C-alpha cells in the first residue's frame, strides 16, 4: 500500500528535541565554520563555480541522470547547450539547467523573499528545453502524481504526494513556515525540504528544486553570505536512507528521524564543502603567485581567473574571449600547458581546436583523481 501525504499534519507539532540537540549545535557550528571560509574567498562565484557545477551533477544524478562533471563541462565548452539529440546530451542539458536555475534564483533572492513566486520562477528555468516542455514549467500541477519505481502505476506507488486540490493551501502553509519564528534554522530547513518533497508541487523537478532551496534558505537567513552550499554528495551517497526517511515522515510522522538524518548530512557536507573550498582557495593563491612570476604579464591573473571559471574550455575561446591580446594569450596557453597546469583532453584535429582541462581544480571538485 502506498503511503499518502500527511494532510493536516504540517508543521509537526512536536519533535524529540533531546534526540536532536546533540546534532543541532554541531550542524550550526559546521555551517558557521564553512561560512568563515566562504567569506574569506575573493569572488566565490568564480572560484566555487566548478563546485556548483558538481552539485548540479550530483543532485541530478539522484534522479538518474548519467552525466559526469567532465562531460558537462566539456559539452558546455563546445557550445551546444541546446542540443538534446541523445539521452546523454539531454542529461547534460538538465544539469546545465540546474546550475542556471540556481544562478537565477540567487539573483532573484536579491529582490524577492524566498517564496512561492521565486520557486515557480526557478522551476521555469530548471525545466527549460525539450524534456521539460510537457512538464508545465513554473506551474503547480493540477493532476495527481506519485513516487515509485520508474513508470509504475499509482497502485504500485511507494508514496502519493499531496492531492492537486489541497496543493495550493499546502504551499501557502509551506511558504508561511519559511518566515515563521523557529527555534533552530537548520531544523526549520530540514522540515521545509521534507514538506516540499511531500507536497511535490510540480509535475517534474521536485527533487532537484527541493535541493536547490537548501542553499537559498541558508543565504536568505543570513547563515551564508552566498548561496554556495552543496548537500547532494551526501544525499546521493545515502539515497536509500534519504528516501526512507522522507517516507517515514508521512507514514509514521517521524519528523525527528528525518531531521536527524538531515542534520548529519549538513554536518558532513559542511566539512566536505569547507575542505574543498579551502583547497580551491589555496590552489588559486599558489597558482596566482606562479602565474605572475612565470608570465611576467599583467594578464596572468586574468588568465588564471578564466581557467577557474571554465576548468574545461576550447583553446581558441580563451584566445578570442579572455580579453587578453592574442599573442599574450597564446604565450600564456603554451606556458600553462608546458608547466602541466592545463592538460589537453582532446587534441586539435583539422579545424577543431584543442580542448583543455584544469585537472587540479577538477579533482578537488570530484574529491578524487578523476582527471
Ligand atoms: N517517500 C517520499 N516522500 C517524499 N518525498 C520523496 C519520497 N521519496 C522520494 N522523495 C523525493 O522525491 C524526489 C524524486 O521525486 P520524483 O522521482 O518524482 O522526481 P521529480 O519530481 O521528477 O523531480 P526530480 O526529477 O528533480 O527528482 C526525491 O529526490 C526525493 O527528494
UniProtKB/TrEMBL annotation:
Entries under InterPro entries matching the protein: Fic/DOC_N, Fido, Fido-like_dom_sf, Fido_containing, SoFic-like
Active site residues per record: 200
Keyword tags: ATP-binding, Nucleotide-binding, Nucleotidyltransferase, Transferase
Keyword Magnesium appears in the UniProt entry: no
Record EC number: 2.7.7.-
Occurrences of domain Fido (ranges): 114-264
Binding site for ATP: 63, 200, 204-211, 242-243
GO molecular function: ATP binding; nucleotidyltransferase activity
Protein name per Swiss-Prot or TrEMBL: Adenosine monophosphate-protein transferase SoFic
Protein species of origin: Roseisalinus antarcticus
Amino acid at each position: 500500500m502506498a503511503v499518502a501525504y500527511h494532510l493536516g499534519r504540517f508543521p509537526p507539532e512536536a519533535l524529540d528535541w533531546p534526540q536532536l540537540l546533540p546534532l543541532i549545535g554541531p550542524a550550526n557550528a559546521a555551517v558557521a565554520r564553512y561560512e568563515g571560509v566562504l567569506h574569506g574567498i575573493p569572488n566565490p562565484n568564480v572560484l566555487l563555480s566548478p563546485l556548483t557545477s558538481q552539485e548540479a551533477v550530483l543532485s541530478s544524478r539522484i534522479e538518474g541522470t548519467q552525466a559526469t562533471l567532465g562531460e558537462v563541462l566539456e559539452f558546455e565548452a563546445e557550445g551546444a547547450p541546446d542540443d538534446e539529440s541523445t539521452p546523454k546530451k539531454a542529461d547534460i542539458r538538465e544539469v546545465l539547467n540546474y546550475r542556471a536555475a540556481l544562478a537565477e534564483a540567487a539573483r532573484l533572492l536579491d529582490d524577492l523573499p524566498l517564496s512561492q513566486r521565486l520557486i515557480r520562477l526557478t522551476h521555469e528555468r530548471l525545466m527549460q528545453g525539450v524534456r521539460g516542455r510537457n512538464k508545465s514549467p513554473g506551474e503547480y500541477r493540477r493532476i495527481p502524481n506519485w513516487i515509485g519505481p520508474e513508470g509504475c502505476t499509482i497502485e504500485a506507488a511507494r508514496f502519493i504526494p499531496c492531492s492537486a486540490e489541497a496543493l495550493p493551501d499546502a504551499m501557502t502553509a509551506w511558504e508561511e513556515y519559511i518566515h515563521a519564528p523557529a527555534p533552530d534554522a537548520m531544523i526549520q530547513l530540514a522540515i521545509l525540504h521534507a514538506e516540499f518533497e511531500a507536497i511535490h508541487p510540480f509535475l517534474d523537478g521536485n527533487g532537484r528544486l527541493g535541493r536547490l532551496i537548501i542553499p537559498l534558505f541558508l543565504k536568505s537567513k543570513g547563515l551564508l553570505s552566498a548561496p554556495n552550499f552543496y548537500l547532494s554528495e551526501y544525499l546521493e551517497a545515502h539515497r536509500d536512507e534519504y528516501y526512507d526517511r522522507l517516507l517515514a515522515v508521512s507514514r509514521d510522522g517521524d519528523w525527528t528521524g528525518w531531521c536527524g538524518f538531515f542534520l548529519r548530512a549538513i554536518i558532513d557536507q559542511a566539512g566536505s564543502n569547507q575542505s574543498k573550498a579551502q583547497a580551491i582557495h589555496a590552489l588559486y593563491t599558489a597558482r596566482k603567485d606562479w602565474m605572475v612570476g612565470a608570465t611576467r604579464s599583467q594578464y596572468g591573473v586574468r588568465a588564471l581567473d578564466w581557467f577557474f571559471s571554465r576548468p574545461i574550455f576550447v583553446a581558441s575561446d580563451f584566445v578570442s574571449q579572455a580579453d587578453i591580446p592574442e599573442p599574450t594569450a597564446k604565450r600564456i596557453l603554451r606556458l600553462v600547458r608546458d608547466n602541466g597546469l592545463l592538460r589537453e583532453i582532446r587534441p586539435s584535429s583539422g579545424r577543431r581546436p584543442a580542448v583543455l582541462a584544469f585537472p587540479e581544480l577538477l579533482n578537488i571538485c570530484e574529491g578524487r583523481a578523476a582527471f
